[in-house]
Amino acid sequence: MADKNNDNCVIYDYTEHKLWKLINDLDAYGREDMAEVLLEALNGYIAGEFDIVWVDGQPMLSNSEKAEK
Prior knowledge:
α1 (14-28) runs antiparallel to α2. A hairpin with a 2-residue loop joins β1 and β2 (58-61). By secondary structure, the chain is mainly α. It is built from three helices and two strands; from the N terminus they run ααββα. It has one domain.
């Protein structure tokens, strides 16, 4: 049962978690080139430069207001 006091709730960012997993998997398979591209995307996402959306299980940069500022 959920606690009505949400002060102790932890929300995980799926996008950040999933990108880290993809980066590690690509690196393990010897695809450092693709891992580097995803790492750059992850850094931009964390910095708030743009959003990432998931299309058919693949990360895509979105055209958001963040990119226009």
